[in-house]
């Protein structure tokens, strides 16, 4: 598979999700080659999966801290996008091979993380579905083919399949700010919030915590791009590839 790689910049959540959705729709119409892009969020933002109810959000807490929210075009559970590098891969005619694509993407990400010193592996099994508090937040449980370190999830991913195209995007955690998602979910009690915080702390990790120091995001971008070159056939890398510079 020939794969184009775009190193995109930092934008607001609604713009990023619109771009991912537009790329998926272009691929569905046969107007886009297999494409991978990396990007960052301009401010901490909560995203919900395509089918998640916005009623799960604690709007009062979000208003007090001025944290916005956006809906992803993919499935999955809630994420606080902060201190992360996000990837999005769009594959025409990829719907029938979604599990295989997820495995290859995870292998590429795990290799890239190992290149910066993080002992990342790909989980071939994953955890069973559990109670609601464990399913409301993406990083509270690990699904099959996700990337972990010492049994803790470090990359959260989700997919959306159309009839002739697939989008998968996800968060590569560089710092621990994702843990604050527990502050912004509507839960039955503060005891439930404490339980979720504890589970997130126990079940997830980040690059900075694993290495004891931060890794420059440009170094991580380069390492991941190089690992995707090894796992996929990459035709070119464009940095940055903005709309004004000719991106489809």
Outline the structure in words:
By secondary structure, the chain is an alpha/beta fold. It has one domain (2-239): BirA Bifunctional Protein, domain 2 (2-Layer Sandwich), CATH 3.30.930.10. It has seven helices and twelve strands. The strands form three sheets. The chain has a six-stranded mixed beta sheet, with helices on both faces. A three-stranded mixed beta sheet has the order 4-3-5, with helices on one face. Strands 7-8-9 form a three-stranded antiparallel beta sheet, with helices on one face. A hairpin with a 2-residue loop joins strand 8 and strand 9 (152-153). It is globular.
**Weakly predicted, low-confidence segments:** 239-246
Find the CATH superfamily. Bira Bifunctional Protein, Domain 2
Q: Regarding CATH, which class?
A: Alpha Beta
- How many structural units, i.e. domains? 1
Radius of gyration: 17 Å
What would you call the shape? globular
Distance between the termini: 20 Å
Instruction: Could you tell me the CATH topology label.
Output: BirA Bifunctional Protein, domain 2
| Assembly of the depicted chains | single chain
Side-by-side strand order of the widest sheet? 10-11-6-2-1-12
Order of helices and strands: EHEEHEEEHEHEEEEHHHE
Structural class: alpha/beta
